[in-house]
Amino acid sequence: LDNTPFYAESGGQIGDVGILETPDVLFGVMDTKKTQVGVFSHSGVLRRGNLRVGDHLSAEVNKNTRLRISRNHSATHLMNNALRKILGNHISQRGSLVDDKKIRFDFSHDQSLSAAEVLLVEKIVNDEIMSNVKTSTNLMSFDNALSSGAIALSNEKYGDEVRVISIGTSFELCGGTHVIRTGDIGLFKIIAESAVASGIRRIEAITGDETS
Q1: Is 26 within 8 Å of 49 (Cβ atoms)?
Q2: Are 44 and 79 spatial neighbours (Cβ–Cβ below 8 Å)?
Q3: Could you give the CA distance from residue 20 to residue 40 in angstroms, rounded to a whole number?
C-alpha cells in the first residue's frame, strides 16, 4: 500500500490485524511488519476476490485488538518507570513483547523481586492508572529529548527527530500505540517474575479485562 493505518511490528509491539477491502475484495490482515524503510507488509488471507496492483482499498484496523495492545504498551511504560523508582536508575529494558494478551518485559537487575516489591510495583502502576492523566505526544530532536530526561533504549536506532510519550510520570522515546488516558488501562496485574539470563529478569503482566 502507498500508505496504511496499520501499525507494523516494532519496539516489542506486535503488528496490527484487520481487513483490507473493496466491494469485490476482502483480505484479512493477520500481521503487519516493516520489510524495509518506508515499506510495510500486510500478511494474511485473501477471503474474496483478487488483488491487483493499482487497486484502491479501504483499510480497517481491528479496534478491539488495537485497544488491548495499547493498554499493554502504556502499562509497560508505567511499569518500567515504577521499577526504576523502586530498584534504582540502573534498571534498563533488555527486551519486551507487547501483544493483545499480556506484557513480557525483560530488564537488567541482579536479583529477584521480593513479594513486597512486586506488590509495590503494582500499586505504583495502578495509582497512575487511577489518576486518569491524559497521555501526551511530542516530536523533539533526539538530543533535546535526552536532555529533557526521556528514557531511550540503548539498543534502539533513533533518527534526528524522535517521538516522546508522556504517560503519567513516565517519559520515554516510543513509536508505538498508547491509550488516551491512563485510566483506559483499567487494571494492572503482575502474573510472573523470573530470571532469563545472568543479570536479566523478566516480568509478565496483564491489564484490562484480562485481569478479571
Answers
A1: yes
A2: no
A3: 14
Cβ atoms < 10 Å from Cβ of 212 = 8
Count CB neighbours of 192 within 10 A: 11
The string of DSSP codes covering 86-132 is HH-TT--EEEEEE-SS-EEEEEE-SSPPPHHHHHHHHHHHHHHHHHT
Phi, psi (rounded to 5 degrees) for 101 = -105, -45
CA atoms of 76 and 70, how far apart (whole Å):
10
Q: Looking at the DSSP assignment, which residues form a beta bridge with residue 193?
A: 203
Q: What is the 3-state secondary structure (H, E, C) of 5-18?
A: CCCCCECCECCCCE
The sheet carrying 103-108 orders its strands as: 93-98, 103-108, 200-207, 188-197
Other C-beta atoms closer than 10 Å to the C-beta of 141 total: 12
With contact defined as beta carbons under 8 Å apart, do 205 and 111 qualify? no
Q: Which three cell numbers mark 142? A: 533526539
8-47 tens-digit pLDDT: 999 899 999 999 999 999 999 999 999 887 789 999 999 9
pTM of the model as a whole: 0.94
Low-confidence residues in the chain, pLDDT < 50: none
